[in-house]
Amino acid sequence: MPKSIHDLDVSPKPGKIYWKNGAREWREEFIYFLMVDRFHDDHNRTPRDVQGKAQGFGTNEQLRNTCGGTLRGIRNHLDYIKNLGCTALWLSPVFENNADAYHGYAIQDYTTVDSRFGTIDDLAELVDAAHAWEMRVFLDIVLHHSGDNWSYPGDYPYYFFNGAIFPFGKWRYENKPSPVELRNPDLYWRKGQIRNFDSYPETREGDFLSLKTFKNDDSPESLYVQELLTKIHCYWIRETDVDGFRLDAVKHMGEKSISQFCSHIREYAHKLGKRNFFLFGELVGPEEMYNKYIGPKTSIQLEDKAIYYGLNSVLDFPLYHVLANVILGKATPEKLIERYESLRENAMLRGEFGEFLVTFIDNHDQVGQEIKSRFGHRATEAQVIAGIGFLLCALGTPCIYYGTEQGFQGSGNGDWNVREAMFNLDDNTTNVLNTDNRIYQEIKQLATIRKGCAVLKFGRMYMRESSHDGRTFSLPVHHDNMLAFSRILYDEEMLIVYNTSKVNDDEEYIEVDRHLNHEGSVFRYIYGNHGKVHVLKNEDGSRHFVKLKLNPSQFIILSNSTAGDHVI
Fold this sequence. Notes:
Strand order of the largest sheet: 13-10-9-6-3-1-16-14
Number of helices: 15
Oligomer: single chain
Number of strands: 28
Radius of gyration: 24 Å
């Protein structure tokens, strides 16, 4: 028999001291996102000696199925992630999935870890080991839908049609889904598969392919589902001491439901002494949509006038959709400037840290793209380094997708093509966790700079104008020129510059803050070069700038700090 929700104990574990990590804010993190099935198995393996960009393991057929990665395999190689400079670990969903699902998003039992990945003890031990390394652990969770746990009549695919509710067919398993309270057909919309993911209410009420959507309105059934899911996820905090959740498919749920869930989870975490529980969401849509889900939301229920606080942050899809092409030189920096202008305009509607989103350049889920491609498929070694360097220096909480640090090059017509294994599926002796790889080493150096530098974590960000003659300045709007921005924290400025051309050197004058940097003062290289450059000014003193010459795809960081504590 499946467990009941009443079997889940959410009282604090006797004698357990829950990890607090109160000294570090979530916006300071450098997140490593991995798919549990693809990172590492239980075997002791030796890294392949690959210089330059590496290939992940797995054929098309192998990658469409379970590969054998485990929670124990992750724990055994936490040093690889820690030494890269990452401070947090984001795991793909770990709850028991339908047998044909390796990715974790087709949940059939919310009360146990998928046996292919390990046990609940394995998860708790992984979290404890991460905490010993001063690393946070975030679980990917799914509130919008369950797995393919029941069928429509005749087991045919049904599709959304004018909001019609279809009859329930039958449960696919005798004891799933679990807990048993989820075995109630009235808790699901039963409106068939979504055809148009941009059409409301279809996108909220329809099924994700064969995955069955819970009710998520203000009905009694929906509120009951929310109560169940909230308790379930409190149970996992209690059992494993995780430090945050990444919420899948937020766009497909109401903002009030998300806010109430987030508030209740935070309240429970506070009961355990966990003060900085991080909640961020996947929300693919226009920038303005983010404002509905981040920060405080006031309940409209008459019997409950409390203020509920939503997500801390969301994944920065607008940046993801433009950054790669700018780094590759396929789009002008103007697109990137427009993205940051949109961020500035919307951030004030989101609370204290509304401009700090979770930034990324590689992703496991590329819905809507006919060909799925890793950033490394199109990028050179130097461009991969520059792409991650940009994330580590720009506004936001940077996140790296597993394998990017090795230059993975996966591409194809299915998401599995960008979900390669990091261990050899044809033997038990080799993997690609190569810490000597140049990309890994350069990211490690950049992450070390960020970790020791408050400016890069908390500073204001300004896109910088440039000039070829020192007189006429403008923001970059053409291909093959320098992309530059500053981070400023009180009296310290750091200048980050990238040559978007991969074939031509470029020499330009880059503007700096004239109030902080007088003529003759210096900026010192802390990454990408050695020495220093002096600040110049134009004839009327209205602009102060430095003169820089960069090689193709060169990425540099300079600082006006005289302390020298950032120099690597």
